[in-house]
Structure formats: structure tokens, C-alpha cells
Give the backbone structure.
Amino acid sequence: MNARPLLRLLTAALLLSQLGACAIQPWVKPYERERLADPIMQFVRDGMLETHREHIHNVREASRGATGVQGGGCGCN
Amino acid sequence: MTSTPSSRRRVLTRLLPGALLAVTASVYALPLAPAGLAPDFTLRTIDGQNLRLQEQRGQVVLVNFWATWCGPCRQEMPHLNRLYEKYRASGFQLLGVNVDEDPRSAAALATKLGVKFPVLPDGDKKVSKLYDLSAMPQTVLIDRDGRVRYLHRGYKEGYENTYDQQIRELLKQ
Amino acid sequence: MAATEAPRAWSERWERTLRACAALKGRRARAAAPLGLIGGVLAGGAAHGVTLPEDKAEAMYHVYDGGGVRATGPALLVRKSLADKVSLSASYYVDMVSNASIDVVTTASPFKEKRTAYSLGADYVYRDSQVSLSFYNSKEPDYTADSIGMDVSQEVFGGMTTVSLGFTRASDKVERKNDATFQDYARHWQYRVGVTQILTPRWLASVNLEAVSDDGYLGSPYRVARVFGAAVPERNPRTRSSRAVKFRVIGDLGSRDALRGEYRYFWDNWDIAAHTAEAGYSRYFGDAWLGDVLLRYYTQDKALFYSDNAQADTVYVSRNRQLSTFNSVAIGAKATYTVPNVPAKYGVKVTGAYEFKRFKFSDFTDIRTGQPYSFDAHVLQVYVSATY
């Protein structure tokens, strides 16, 4: 199986993540994340409802995947 | 168009270094806490009193930065309250610096949790910037001479036992 | 396209990445195989901050009614954390299907069937990383699916960026009712990578990429294709390889409301290309109510071997409307009520959601009328969630 294009993009994502160690400093401080910690700022707020919707779409449509992983939030700990 | 075991292994070995790299990527220098004297600040409590850090000299002070929107902060509050009640008579002061945009939500939550120590709203984030607040919550332990002795970033179950030990140690000095 | 040498220098790899990105769309990928989608979605669910997911218990009743198919059933989920280190979850889902869809009605007779799915998950948080494992099993009279997945997510750049990787491997057993001689398998591999980036204290964006590959029996033993007007059993390729990339953005608008938008582009080696666009708006009303509206537009073009009525006898032929050219528009609304006067450490929420969907096919005819087929569907979900 050839997942080389995917691996390349993955490497790019990881390299980008290393940029943080260089010149640019994080510009949103942990204490400025009040709005991001709000539940309405999550892409998927009710996992169970979204899973059901995703299932309905997968059964009727040919496309699948890239449903997404969440980041953001309060960033505590 | 079939996948072979060796090509699949190759994919996984390619993926693994990437994954490991991602895990270790978080280990880059976090901003360091002030190593010497704790920076002085003055804030008004929710009751309207002015409180200055320097006036607490001679007491052991625990400064806790918290917010109502931070889950671990809410978990930590009852433990801090317990520690405050336990040691306040022995020369211990606990200051809860709150970084909510609306001080009323801080006051409401403090009342709901039965918090006895002073809650100091820092709406314009002056004190947070002064202390280079790099995690939520953050706990700074200051000794009787006003020096920063311990710094805790975040809160996990069991941290309150460490606070207890450290407060006791600083009170003895 | 066997890789015979492994580039060592990062710069070399970076150059190849740039070239690969440009060539990605035209590349024909080799088969690999995935699908335990539900498991993947559950595993890749909520990794925000680096705190463990909250303990909760949820119960939902779902209804889908459209195109002659009615699927209803309960779903339950329980999640509990142990020692503030690991969060375990278990869920149960049932679909009671009453199927009188156009395929069933025109080639057979309506039937009823029950599908049960179980899944288990474990999430472990260590400093800035989260590792999630998930197991999934789905069973119906003629189809069993099992999958195992793993997702790793890492916060970097002061917690502003979350990088995640995930993998799911699924294995299915395909059977045919009233025919003990038919038995086949289907295997699936899913690889996913995602980056979420905080743009400002009010805006968040993410990019997700997923490659799915399948191997084995990828059709339905009951479905027929049409060649020169006659019904023949459908013939699908035994492998499929697809890619999907999704861009999402969400922002706080300042008056206790948020707006989100997402776009996904999908393409595979069956020559299907699909676009999905979704927009949603959420708003708080008072202390206890939260409302959402959403709009979704979906369009896809047909698989290479799909034909409503094939005029040539090709190696692969299918009349599966899931592979045809069609579009679907959906509009939905959701309301959540937070129950007051509940003891402090609990949080109980009741949610009701409704979605109306319209499917319009361009090259799939309703043989009862001779017109291109279209149907409306209603989705209703009622759900109670309690955190403890």
C-alpha cells in the first residue's frame, strides 16, 4: 500500500509544528482562552448526535473520512 | 492493487518517527517563572478591599491564578479553600487571582463553592502578564521574605498534597 | 510505486512533500483499506486542552425516515475516568430498520432488520498528549464489522496548535440471507492526520486529511445493476482507495454566539469526486437555552463503472445510487436545555435536533415513473446528557 502522499503531508504538518520552537511566539496566552473554552466553540459539541449524522451520510453518500479531530478549548493543564 | 505485508510495515515505520516527533515536540522551553522576588502587585478584592502583595511579607503566600471557564481550576478550588482554613492561623495567606473577563461570574462561582480566601479579579490581565502566566491554573508559592519558591503549572488530582507539604515547609522557616 | 530508498535529510523530505502535494490529486494510490468509521469518529472525538474528557452518561433516541427507509433506535454512552489518568467509555447503538427503499421495492419486498453496535474506548492523557484506543463491533443478520483504532494528539506551540494522527483497521464479514454458500470479507484501513490552529482568542481553524482504503467484497449481494435493460448482479472492484480533506473554521461573534463553516473535498480511485459544505450558527438564549441551525450542501459525481442502464458489458458495473451523480441539501435545527436546580457537580442537558434532507439524483431513474429519482428524508434525534 502506498500512503506516501499522506506521509508527506504529515511530515509537513509536523515540521510546521516545530516552528513554535523558533522565532514566532504563541500569540494567544493561556489566560486569553475564555471564549475558546466555551462549548459553542467546539466543532463537534454533541459527539453522539454527530456520530449518528455521520453514519447516515456514510450509508447514503459515496464520500467518507476527514470527520476531524478537535483542538482549541481551554488548554488547561 | 494488493497491499503486501512488507509495504505495510514500511508505512508504519515511516509513520512512527513522525508520531514520536509529535509527542516530543511539546518539550521546548516554557517561559521561566520569576526565580527571585515575587513581582509586587495591588488588586481590589470582590468585596472592594485593596490588597497589595508586598504587605503580606512575613506570611507565606500562595497565589493561585484561576478562571471560571477552566475545569481543573474549579476542581482545585475546594482543596485550596481547605488549605486556607487549615493554615491561615499559622501565618498563611491565599490569593485567588481570577482572569475572567466578567468579575461577576468569578464572584458567583466563589460564593457557590464557599470560597473563604480573597478573590482578586485581574480583568485587564496586568498581573497575569507580570507573572508570565503560562498555564491554567498556575500556583505560585512565596515564602515569608517575598521570594518565589515553588511554581505549579496546571492541576491534577493529588497536587493539593504537594501544596500542603510545601506550605508546611515554608511555614517552618 | 514501491519505495526502494528512504530519504534521510529533512530538506529532501520537505522538497518531496511540496512536489507530492502538487501531484496528490492526480496520483493513483494503491489499495490499502479502512472503514470502522464510527470507531474512528469516537476515538478522534474531543481532545481539547490536555484534560481528560468529562465523565458522562448519555442516552439518545434517533429516527431516520426517508426514501422508504425508516431506521430508529436507542443509543447509550457511559464515560468514566480512573485516577485522573485514563478515561474509559462504552457505548451501545441499535438501528431497527424497516426497509422499503426504491431498490428493495422494485426488486424484492420490504423487510425489517436490526443492527446492534458496541464500542469501547480508552483515552490516556500525559502532559500535552492524548492517546485514544477504540474498539468497535457492529452486527446485523448478514453483516458483521469489527474495527480497532488508535488516535494520538499532541498540543504544540504553547497549546495553540494541536497535531493529531489516527489509524483504524476494520474487518467485515459479508453474508447473504437464505444463502449459506455466500460468504466474503471486506477489510478497511484508515489513516488520518489533522492540525487545529488557534488563530485569535475568538477564532479557530482546522485541516483534516484522511485516506481510506478497502479490500474485498465492497458491494451488496442483493443489489442488481442494469445492462441493456436487463437486471444482472452488480460487479464492483475488489479494492478502493480514497482521500478526503476538510477545512473548518469556527469563531465567536461576541454576543454569546458562534459561527462555523466547513468544506470537504473527497476523491477516490473509482473516479468519484464529492464536495461537502456545511455552515452552522449557535447562540445562547438566557441561562438555560442553546440553539443551533445548520445548512449542508453535498454534491458528488458518479463512479466510473456506475450506470443507470449500461449500454456496454463492462468488467465492473453498478446501479448503486450511492455511487451515482446526485446532490443533497439539508437544513437542521437543534435546541439544548440545561436543566436547572441540579446538584452542583452534575450537569444535565436535554437536546432535540431535527434535520430535513432532500436528495436529487441526476442519473438514477425511478423505474416506477421513468423520472430521475429524488426523495426527502427526516432525521430526528432526542438526547439527554448528564455529566457527573
